[in-house]
User: Which sequence fits this backbone?
């Protein structure tokens, strides 16, 4: 976890940027000034804007060095997917606590020419020999999470690179091997450690204190890297060179793949991954899950992503008057919280990998079901945690026992042809398992399965472990259109299980409350799940108003949001980055 000292630094840092960029609040002007490359001072990355307007293209991501890489690809005539490849390569270096080539991702892609919306699934898979009880001890009790997360059993077959390769073959403009140059140069020459990364390096997560992490993050003088120190990673550069030349096969076959297998088989709690598991990985693609919300159409990936839960929450909110309210209204936040709780209850119970379990997606999003479920949203908060509903086609599962810690990032891009990417990408926990090969961290994605695979009566959990299965996710990269099919916005966030609430907040703030993108993303987060209501500090009037409505807010007990969004305003784009993190939005 990030230290209090670094948290205060980041809070002050975010406030400074918000103040220094307030003059960019031009969202309602008909002919806004356009950001150009000459106006971007890349040597002062700490002061790049949290909000930018641009006429032709836009990119927003969690680190300015990654945004620069994507921006340069777009300026060179690359597509949104080309830029996503370059950004992911850099993020894996400068933000390894969140994502990397050893992890997985979901992407929603909009083709401006065909108006087709495609969902790409690069979620990690369990090894073929994985078993439902792999996270149980000899007494059939769940292994403590802190023990499981750094184990070999935690790592799934990585899918992010293969997914990006699939999408780039279909939608790329530039040669694949040209998309890694920025990341390779930074890895070889070094980059300045950011305050957020420094906070993770010097924090208390067990993954930062593994043998591999110590070797990487501790200098010769015995001190850990601090903000501003220059960190080099030649091994990562070599891995990227191999990927640039060979594609995803560079890490799914051959020497790097063998290193992954060897590392996973080390104790404690060695995993069962084989070379055949890696070589057999295949990303998936298909039509996005698109549903109407008021005057818009919202598109996300389908299960096992978090798209189903987000879509249900929106469907529930469509039965309230939240669009007639605003961010200063406690009743609006009550409606938001109750819809969240109901959607989480269903999502936690029903959603798993549809290749292995029946997920009643159409039943959960059925108009009649949503109408009845929304009747539970009243004038005050429900006293008890809501139970799951009984949608049409629903099977019987046991209550889920999945922990979903943070360690994720989000990217949004619109290129000069109007194609759009929204991608959430992750290694799961902070620095994944803390195990490294080839200069990158291995994911701990299999801890996203339910540690308890079944109830005492043998009823299975939808998200129980199984060989070749993909674990459930809350990631829900979103692209929004108007009823005529025209692009409106792209957005998403990291945040573990809280992603659903973060994305929901941004959608409501942008579409219903018509807020500028920076203001929408900066709103306090309210995560209502079960009987708890975690939140950032709200103004006293709202907090008291919510308390009067039966909602007692607790300090945030979850990973903070890292929202990024791009919204179309007439003939220009407005891009924004969450003030809680180090991201920026830049366009031309």
Assistant:
């Amino acid at each position: 976890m990030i230290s209090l000292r670094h948290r205060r630094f980041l809070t002050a840092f975010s406030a400074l940027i918000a103040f220094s960029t307030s003059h960019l609040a031009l969202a309602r002007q008909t002919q806004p000034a356009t950001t150009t490359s000459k106006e971007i001072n890349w040597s002062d990355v700490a002061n790049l804007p949290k909000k930018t307007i641009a006429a032709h293209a836009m990119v927003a991501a969690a680190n300015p060095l990654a945004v620069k890489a994507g921006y340069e690809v777009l300026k060179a005539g690359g597509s949104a997917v080309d830029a996503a490849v370059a950004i992911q390569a850099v993020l894996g270096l400068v933000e390894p606590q969140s994502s990397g080539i050893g992890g997985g991702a979901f992407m929603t892609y909009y083709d401006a020419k065909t108006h087709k919306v495609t969902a790409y699934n690069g979620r990690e898979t369990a090894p073929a020999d994985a078993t439902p009880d792999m996270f149980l001890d000899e007494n059939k009790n769940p292994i403590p999470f802190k023990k499981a997360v750094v184990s070999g059993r935690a790592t799934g077959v990585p899918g992010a690179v293969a997914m990006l390769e699939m999408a780039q073959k279909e939608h790329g403009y530039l040669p694949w091997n040209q998309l890694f140059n920025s990341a390779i140069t930074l890895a070889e020459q070094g980059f300045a450690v950011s305050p957020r990364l420094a906070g993770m390096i010097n924090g208390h997560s067990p993954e930062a204190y593994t043998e591999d992490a110590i070797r990487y993050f501790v200098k010769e003088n015995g001190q850990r890297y601090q903000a501003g120190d220059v960190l080099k990673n030649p091994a990562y550069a070599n891995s990227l060179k191999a990927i640039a030349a060979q594609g995803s096969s560079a890490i799914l076959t051959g020497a790097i793949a063998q290193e992954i297998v060897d590392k996973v088989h080390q104790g404690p709690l060695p995993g069962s991954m084989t070379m055949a598991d890696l070589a057999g990985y295949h990303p998936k693609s298909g039509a996005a899950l698109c549903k109407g919300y008021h005057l818009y159409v919202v598109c996300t990936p389908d299960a096992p992503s978090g798209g189903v839960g987000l879509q249900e929450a929106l469907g529930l909110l469509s039965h309230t008057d939240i669009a007639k309210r605003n961010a200063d209204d406690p009743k609006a936040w009550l409606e938001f919280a109750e819809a969240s709780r109901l959607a989480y209850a269903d999502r936690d119970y029903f959603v798993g990998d549809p290749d292995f379990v029946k997920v009643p997606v159409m039943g959960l999003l059925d108009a009649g079901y949503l109408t009845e479920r929304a009747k539970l949203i009243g004038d005050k908060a429900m006293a008890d945690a809501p139970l799951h509903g009984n949608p049409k086609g629903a099977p019987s599962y046991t209550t889920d026992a999945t922990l979903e810690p943070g360690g994720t990032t989000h990217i949004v891009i619109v290129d000069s042809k109007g194609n759009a990417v929204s991608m959430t990408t992750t290694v799961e926990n902070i620095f994944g398992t803390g195990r490294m090969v080839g200069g990158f961290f291995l994911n701990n994605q299999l801890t996203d399965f339910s540690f308890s695979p079944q109830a005492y009566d043998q009823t299975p959990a939808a998200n129980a472990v199984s060989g070749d299965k993909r674990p459930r996710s809350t990631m829900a990269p979103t692209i929004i259109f108007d009823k005529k099919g025209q692009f409106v916005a792209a957005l998403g966030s990291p945040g573990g299980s809280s992603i659903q609430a973060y994305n929901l907040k941004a959608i409501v703030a942008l579409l219903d409350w018509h807020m500028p993108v920076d203001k929408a993303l900066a709103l306090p987060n309210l995560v209502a799940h079960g009987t708890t209501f975690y939140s950032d500090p709200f103004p006293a009037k709202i907090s008291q108003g919510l308390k009067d409505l039966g909602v007692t807010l607790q300090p945030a007990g979850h990973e903070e949001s890292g929202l990024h969004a791009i919204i179309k305003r007439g003939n220009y784009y407005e891009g924004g980055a969450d003030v809680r993190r180090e991201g920026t939005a830049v366009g031309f």
